[in-house]
C-alpha cells in the first residue's frame, strides 16, 4: 500500500511522537515522517485549504502511526477511551487518521483548552469545563475538518479519521519502508 508524505507549505508538521514530549516520555518514532493514505492526504489538503480561507493553518501532531508505535502507546496508557487497543487496530495504523490543531497565520497554535494528548475528560469535544474561547476554537476545527470529509472522535478534540476507516488495512512500519520506527 502506498502512503504519501505530507509536506505541504500549507500544513505545519510537528510530530510529537518523534520527540520525548509525549505520554511515554521517550521518542517513539526514530524519524519524523508524516505519512497518510492517499484518500486521507486528499482530505487533509481540503481541510488545509478551508483553514487558510479562515486565516488559519493546520498543525499535524500525528498521522500514520505504525502498529509497532501503537503498542508503545498502549503499554504507556492502556485506556481504550484514549488509546486504541493495538490488538483491535487503530485508525492511525491504517493511515487514515490525523491528530491536529489549528494555528494562526503565523503558526501559533490556537487555545484548545488542553494540550494535545491530555488524556482526561477535559479533552472531550463537548467539554464545557474549558474556557469559551477554547470551545469556540474546537468548534472551528470541527467545522473545518467535517467540511473536508473527516469524522471526529468525541473523546479527543485533536483526533479525526476518515468515515470508513475500518475498510483500510492495518499497517506496520514496513509499509512505510521502515522510515518511521
From TrEMBL:
Pfam families: Peptidase_M15
Keywords: Cell wall biogenesis/degradation, Dipeptidase, Hydrolase, Metal-binding, Metalloprotease, Protease, Zinc
One example GO MF annotation: D-Ala-D-Ala dipeptidase activity
Cofactor: Zn(2+)
Catalyses which reaction(s): D-alanyl-D-alanine + H2O = 2 D-alanine
Family indicated by similarity: Belongs to the peptidase M15D family.
UniProt function note: Catalyzes hydrolysis of the D-alanyl-D-alanine dipeptide.
Protein name stated in the entry: D-alanyl-D-alanine dipeptidase
Species this protein is from: Skermanella cutis
Lineage of source species: Bacteria, Pseudomonadati, Pseudomonadota, Alphaproteobacteria, Rhodospirillales
Gene behind the chain: ddpX
